[in-house]
Design a protein that fits this description.
Elements: E1 2-4, E2 10-12, E3 17-20, E4 26-31, H1 40-54, E5 59-63
Parallel strand pairs: 4-5
Antiparallel strand pairs: 1-2, 3-4
Length: about 70
């Protein structure tokens, strides 16, 4: 999926995992270190992924220690 970086550039983003549950529901999972969660581009990527998933009745999950 594409997102716009903080600098205004179009970038590509691919979350780490597509998870398909036994009930058929799908989720995108992103593994991210806590030190990166407040980064403006990380926030933009995650917001784009949430929107993309919402449009497809999917969930977006960030896996971290926080």
């Amino acid at each position: 999926m594409e997102y716009i970086s903080e600098a205004g550039n179009k970038r590509g983003y691919r979350p780490d995992f597509l998870v398909e549950k036994v009930d058929g529901k799908k989720e995108l999972h992103e593994v991210k270190g806590t030190q990166f969660l407040d980064n403006p581009d990380t926030i933009r990527k995650h917001e784009r992924a949430k929107t993309w998933c919402r449009q497809r009745s999917m969930n977006f999950v960030v896996v971290t220690k926080r």
